[in-house]
Amino acid sequence: MSDDDSGEGLRAQGLAALDRLVDATAAERIAISLASLGFAIIVGTVLVFVSGFVAECRDPFIYLPGLGFGCYNPLEVYWTMFIGSFGSMTDIGQTLLQTTLLLFTGLSVAVAFRAGLFNIGTQGQMVLGALATALVVLELAAYVPDNAAGMLIVIPVGVVVGGIVGGFWGMIPGLMKAYANAHEVITTIMLNFVAIGIAFWLVQVHVGDLTTDSVQTESVPAVARLPATISGSRFSVIALIGALLVAVGIYLLYKRTVIGYDLRTSGIQESAAEYGGVNAKRNIVTSMTLSGVLGGIAGAIYVMMVQYRWQAGIPPLGFDGIAVSILAGNNPIGVIPAALLFGSLKTGSVAVDLSLGVPGELVEVLRGLIILFIAMPEFFRMIGKRFGYGNGSVVTDGGEA
Amino acid sequence: MEPDEQDERATTGTPPAVHLDGITKRFPGVIANDDVDLEVERGTIHALVGENGAGKTTLMNVLYGLYEPTEGTVRIDGEPQTFDDPGDAMDVGIGMIHQHFMLVDTMTVAENVVLGDEPTKWGGIVTDRERANRETQALADRYGLEVEPTELIEEISVGEQQRVEILKTLYRGADILILDEPTAVLTPQEVQSLFGILRELIAEGKTIIFITHKLGEALEVADEISVLRKGKLVGTVDAETATREELARMMVGRDVLLEVDKPAASRGDLVLDVEAVTIEDDRGVVAADSVSFGVHQGEVFGIAGVDGNGQSELIEAITGLRKPTDGTITFDGRDITTDSRRSRVSAGMAYVAEDRQKRSLVMEYELQRNGLLGRQHLRPFSDGRLIDWGATGEYVDDIIEEYDVRPADPTAKAHSFSGGNQQKFIVGREFERDPSLVIASQPTRGVDIGSIEFIHNRLLELRSDGKAVLLVSSKLDEVTQLSDRLGVMHDGEIIAVVDPDEVTEEELGLLMAGERPDNLDVDGARVRRSSV
């Protein structure tokens, strides 16, 4: 009996906590995120420390009687991770480079999510957008002067082409959702495979650089490369500024504009949108297209700022975008710090991997822990909201208050 | 359980089937139930009435094991019980039939009935469908519930779906059945058939608790009626001797006008003219066949009929949500047959939709955002591009105040409001934008008595202001009391337009069933129509 009581008490406490979490203010949410980061580091510290006793190494960091030699110093690992992402201008450049790309993919996911649509297809939209950009700028570069003026033509065209092709690839699941009732999660996942397959085949067989064995296009000329801002890194602040402007633009779109209201209403509740005089089907297609455009632009930036060519095996930035968006609570402004966190973790873990003897897998675990801990409260907020917690409401009987 | 056992209990003075003893349920900031005592004798129907938000559903959720009471005890047959979840309540024979059905549309009646407790064959690997069908049929026959076990849920009527819900509960061995607003979605005929079923069930020794806010129904079917107001039990009365006025006073806490006081109509120009309109439903079947009627300024034109006789499609065609295949619709002298929904709204057409949770409200939006729905393209709410949240907020605050939407919180989401408050908000939003035509479809469905009075009065005020009102309702008393002229729809046709003061309820019932009563001059009705 007493067991039951405490169980009930815990459950009630848990639900009350969930209520409070859903209603948390922005400041509380930031505090929760920072505390989560702290907890993640504590858990990671223990994990790294303990793993050190299992591993073998030439010069151990510590000896504990009864346990033997411990190889890894957790503080050093985290310090290296931090220094690796912010320690020098070059590192900051690399961090911002990742951040910029994650901003575009994160916003791509967030823009659809805000409109009640779950676009898992950012990766595919990015891959095809990247290829289109690479091919078009390679062609176009021959017709423009090899100077700043040329750049002013080639780079915008590259971005537009990437956006158009990505948007087209996003429009397909939008059309299938609106007019054939096919769920966008399924269709976008499948279209990722199709996109990656098409791009690989095109490059390998038709449009690639046939002089190498790698599946890749030729390298794009200087006019199609975003000017680097920081030496030692290909990061270009122009791309970052563009991404930040897009974030603010999307925020305003949903906050202030009639178009944003219509897009969101259409995705969330189609029949209510029709009641409200909105062509809901067309808006669903528009939301998915817009999401695809941002995925495609991410691809264009990837080609013109990072790889300088299309190459098979583009990193899963599109999938990371899903995590970035969820971490941000699908808020376009929240995507900015979320992308920065992901970007710095990416860069920092490369440094740990290279400079310490800690295996890459363990670094991945540390990175995963941080993301997991920070994303969980947001995740619970989303779930809690779904099931009607929060908002100070009595769930079933909201009449009198 | 069995009749003789019940008799034995009655003679030996055994405790009531359900005894809620001093139940208090608190939520943060709200006392939903305040020291409620309720006793229900075995083999009786006990109605629980009260306005939306009075705490009826919360009380039943306590009995059903969904909530743990903050204070008080639940006794079943005299035994104190604590339920951790509805499964525990089910184990002692308590079953609940929710207002919103919990059925799988793509499965058959029998599959739904046995779901979770399926008879199996081949060592438990495969559902024994034949046995499921047989057992469902047997159970249905025993309690007089007409269903066809092999039909799919999506293909049967709402009334039949409710019977399946009842069967589901009985199949799980329920002895005490709680029905939450079971008549909200039913037509008058279906309500009567439900009452027949309930009487059958108590004759078989079951105990029924019936949540409703329709006083007439409580008086008709229940043995005893308990009234809740603001979480407290106001009293329990004998249904034999109680009156509607008495119950309404207990429920609302003041005298309520049950009859609408309607001033004489002063009919003006023709506002809406529907001429030979034919409409197909989603499956391409003709739902409305060459329907004609007109609505004038300063009159309420009512459309009565059993649900599913083409009213929904007709209203959707008029409001621009469905394209008619033939005919013309004229609004304020302009042919709007092919106009978009948006342009009809801009032209001054207000619409309270039948399904508020699907059409008239975005459930995930706050009231603030919902206040914008339908007028987001118009001044003063926006300049067509940017939304003016200031103007929208003022408008929403005004609606909340004037239409007494509770809780008065424009930042609360639509789904956290009770049905009555949702409807008051929608009615306010649609009525306050100076429309020239108001179309109200089932405006008081699932709405409490105080709000019904309010909505009816607002409709009549619009009529006095010279607006044209088109009212569709499956509640006969509503359409007859409010309408100046009443069209009866049957099988996609308006088979008569009558003066509601000149027909009896019986005659209307026959018309709704598609029969023309001998003593009613239906041609006369037609003549009245053609004089429009």
TrEMBL record, chain A:
The keyword Cell membrane applies. Its main location: membrane. It comes from Natronosalvus hydrolyticus. CDD domains: TM_PBP1_transp_TpRbsC_like. This is ABC transporter permease. Keywords: Cell membrane, Membrane, Transmembrane, Transmembrane helix. It is found in: Cell membrane. One of its GO terms (molecular function) is transmembrane transporter activity. It is a multi-pass membrane protein.
UniProtKB/TrEMBL annotation, chain B:
GO terms for molecular function: ATP binding; ATP hydrolysis activity. Signal peptide: none annotated. It is found in: Cell membrane. Pfam families: ABC_tran (PF00005). Residues 18-255, 272-516 form the ABC transporter domain. Gene3D superfamilies: P-loop containing nucleotide triphosphate hydrolases. The keyword Membrane applies. PROSITE patterns: ABC_TRANSPORTER_1, ABC_TRANSPORTER_2. One of its GO terms (cellular component) is plasma membrane. It is a peripheral membrane protein. Its main location: membrane. Keywords: ATP-binding, Cell membrane, Membrane, Nucleotide-binding, Repeat, Translocase, Transport. InterPro entries: AAA+_ATPase (IPR003593), ABC_carbohydrate_import_ATPase (IPR050107), ABC_transporter-like_ATP-bd (IPR003439), ABC_transporter-like_CS (IPR017871), P-loop_NTPase (IPR027417). The keyword Ribosomal protein does not apply. This is ABC transporter ATP-binding protein.
